[in-house]
Write a structure and sequence with these properties.
Layout lengths: L1 H13 L4 E5 L6 H9 L7 H10 L8 E10 L2 E8 L4 E5 L2 E5 L5 E5 L8 E3 L17 H17 L5 E4 L5 E5 L2 E6 L4 H14 L5 E4 L14 E3 L1
Parallel strand pairs: 1-3, 7-8, 10-11
Antiparallel strand pairs: 2-3, 4-5, 5-6, 8-9, 9-10, 11-12
Length: about 230
């Protein structure tokens, strides 16, 4: 009986995975994640893959919170990836420190991630990975988190967010500079910006939305063309 079970396990161990699909990935190509997660499994054995996923600690992959390996049948698996939520980054001692929607520093790298804005104009102390960004002015940081979250939900992609000494925000989107001013009516300002970008996607110059008034049904904004 024991010999039969051993033979069965040996046969299963020899069966390789034939097909790998990847879901949930934005930062990595599917082939790269497959190599990072399954690259050290001898012969891509289905059994060894299952044992590794169940018994060994998961691989540490930059920008990935966790992952699962789901067997669709003995030779087909799906890698389900849960990437970290990045809303912005600051430059610190030669590295880019990425933080999430709660202000936690979740990644340190020299890589610049597409569609994640650089945030400038705030002072902070010594930065430690997996801890809150130690800003000198919590009020400004609260405004930054609110702004980045609204940008994300509005699907507005910006290269840089800058704050001046008066806590006024400016966005840099390609060749367009957007002066947002104070945090008042920020959601309305960004909805207005979204509509403007939809009509004029190649706008280049400086757009002043700091004069936004939610009660004005026919607003006009100052614009300086490059």
């Amino acid at each position: 009986m024991a010999a039969g079970i051993l033979l069965f396990l040996l046969l299963i161990a020899a069966v390789p995975i034939h097909e790998v699909t990847v879901s949930g990935n934005r930062h990595y190509q599917p082939e790269e994640l497959e190599e990072r997660i399954l690259g050290d499994v001898p012969g891509k054995s289905a059994l060894l893959t299952w044992l590794q996923f169940r018994l060994r600690p998961h691989k540490v992959i930059p920008f990935v919170e966790d992952y699962r390996i789901a067997f669709r049948d003995p030779v087909r698996v799906e890698l389900i990836v849960y990437e970290k939520s990045l809303v912005g980054y600051v430059s610190y001692m030669g590295s880019n420190m990425y933080f999430d929607k709660d202000g936690m520093v979740v990644e340190s790298t020299q890589e610049v991630i597409e569609d994640v804005p650089l945030v400038t104009g705030m002072s902070f102390g010594h930065i430690v990975l997996n801890q809150a960004l130690p800003v000198d002015d919590p009020e400004v940081f609260g405004e930054i988190l609110t702004l980045t979250q609204v940008l994300e939900t509005s699907n507005i992609k910006t290269d840089r967010i800058s704050f001046n000494e008066s806590k006024e925000a400016t966005l840099y989107i390609g060749s367009l500079i957007v002066r947002l001013g104070s945090s008042d009516n920020m959601s309305g300002k960004l909805m207005e910006l979204k509509d403007i970008l939809a009509d004029y996607p190649d706008l280049a110059g400086t757009l002043y939305l700091d004069s936004y008034d939610g009660s004005n049904n026919n607003p006009m904004y100052r614009f300086e063309q490059n």
